[in-house]
Design goal:
elongated; little secondary structure
């Protein structure tokens, strides 16, 4: 109904006109955004991102070390075995195999 709505916050209790804004049929919902894969030249920013498919670390002092068949992380150093600073559920052995970007020595 037009007028002041008492359920609005006091600072917003101004008269409503209740006029319809716009006309026609509502717009369709936007299409879902599909993330684009990182180009091969994009570097991996930190140790929270798997570098298995792109072993190019942004930090020049870090290298992409493999933990297992599925995970590799950019680290400054890596010692094979269990890393106690990993969350308990992820405390499985690291192989620490060094992965390098294609074309790198």
């Amino acid at each position: 109904a037009p007028g002041i709505h008492s359920n609005d916050l006091p600072q917003y209790q101004t008269p409503w006109t209740c006029s319809v804004v716009g006309k026609g049929t509502p717009s369709p919902p936007p299409a879902p955004v599909i993330p684009t894969p990182l180009p091969a030249s994009t570097c991996i920013p930190n140790y929270h991102v798997n570098c298995m498919r792109n072993p190019n670390c942004c930090d020049p002092s870090a290298r992409c070390y493999q933990k297992d068949k599925a995970v590799a992380i950019c680290l400054q150093t890596c010692k094979p075995g269990i890393h106690l600073n990993d969350p308990p559920r992820w405390q499985t052995p690291w192989t620490c195999s060094l992965l390098t970007p294609q074309g790198a020595p």
